[in-house]
Amino acid sequence: MDKSIDKPYIIVIGGGASGMVAAITSRRLGAKVTILEKNNRVGKKILATGNGRCNFTNINTDISHYNGANPKFAYSALSQFDVYRAIDFFERLGISHKIEDMGKVFPMSDQASSILDVLLYELNNLGIDIKCDAEVKNIITINNGFKVILANGSSLDCDRVILATGGKAMPASGSTGDGYKFAESFGHKITNLFPGLVQIKLEGSFFKRIQGVKFVGSCELLHKGKSIAVDRGDILFTNYGISGPPILQISRKARELLEKGHKPYIKISIIDELSKERLRDILIMKFSNNPNKSIEFSLVGLINKRLIPVVLMEANIDNITRPVSDLSAAEREKIVHILQNWQFKVRGTLGWQHAQITAGGIDTKDIDPSTMESRLVKGLYFAGEIMDIDGLCGGFNLQWAWSSGFVAGQSAAII
Ligand SMILES: Cc1cc2nc3c(=O)[nH]c(=O)nc-3n(C[C@H](O)[C@H](O)[C@H](O)COP(=O)(O)OP(=O)(O)OC[C@H]3O[C@@H](n4cnc5c(N)ncnc54)[C@H](O)[C@@H]3O)c2cc1C
């Protein structure tokens, strides 16, 4: 690096969550900063976060909410710029916040656009040069720094580069995995990449009949009979399988098992708030109160009507129009079992267009966790989802983007 420079000239590649915070941090420390963003605007993905409300951090953030070959890599950045610093950072930019269930933090306005608006305001306020429609094609090292080559043939020389191009999730937002190629060209390794926080495809021929049915229940990922992950909340049947926040939460582990050639199962409990005994008692009472009702009609009021024929089919009960008084105790037990232990073989997940995050990324072994600088190329820094760190649903991914962006921005600005 050129010792004669007073303050470095930094190019941030990618104007997403991590790139914007990196740019603001470097500029506040006096560096000259340019953001190169291939879209016609910065921060497109932020607008889609938290169903348009932007769940921008989580007060329960700790390392247990992160995945990757070495989740501990995230520890230093998450400590240097922790949840409270993130809340304070945004508070100072004008974002009042509120804390909802499970520690999720949202802007009081309930608008993801507020987060983007204040970031943009600060970028402009600090005089950061933002070049949109500026797709980076290549980065090469030159004497004292880097040459960044754009798709339109032009190039810019700088002292330091912060690579913040995100992963491959939601490619329509601009995150198409370009950064991996740049990192590889410098000798960095990329771990296996796959979509995370994504809907799950299940085996079964009846999903078209129950698509759109929602319930509050629990789901459990099973592998060789062992419980791998559990979650509960709003679950939705779809034409390919299953969706909803708890499903997204367990999807990463499901996909990880599939990637390794395993065949995991998902167990669903439609009625998870009752014990097996209590559910059995309820069925006995229902059936004896109205013995002439059909088996099918006897479940109306207990579960969604559209689920009834499929649940009965899965419980191997035929002729569901016969009176419920005909039902044997063994058949009733099968219904109880399906309502609380319905198991499906996982056949896959949806793809990148539907995923919220990228599992895998630049191997963190070759990155210094306290500075986000490459251990292979001096002056090259990384921020955000591009690295092999991903969080659970709940604000943990944006917290990682802010924390790693801050650390990269700070380290790059200091001579
Ligand atoms: C639908 C959805 C909802 C989500 N909701 C939440 C939530 O509520 N809370 C949460 O914590 N996380 C959420 N996430 C995850 C979170 O948005 C991401 O983890 C985070 O945005 C990653 O930030 P990043 O800066 O690393 O990458 P990105 O935000 O993906 O930004 C990368 C930027 O780099 C640009 N770029 C890429 N290649 C080039 C190139 N060659 N040249 C120039 N520019 C380039 C892209 O256009 C993009 O603007 C959600 C994700 C999705 C898809």
Helix content: 25-40%
> How big is the Rg?
25 Å
Count of alpha and pi helical runs = 12
Question: What would the average pLDDT be, to the nearest integer?
Answer: 97
CATH structural class of the largest domain: Alpha Beta
Classified in CATH, the superfamily of the largest domain is FAD/NAD(P)-binding domain
Largest sheet: 6 strands, antiparallel, barrel
Low-confidence stretches: none
Number of strands: 21
- Principal-axes geometry comes out as elongated
Give the N-to-C terminal Cα separation.
9 Å
Q: Any guess at the CATH architecture of the largest domain? A: 3-Layer(bba) Sandwich
Helix/strand/pairing category? alpha+beta
Say what the CATH topology of the largest domain is. Answer: FAD/NAD(P)-binding domain
Each distinct ligand = flavin-adenine dinucleotide
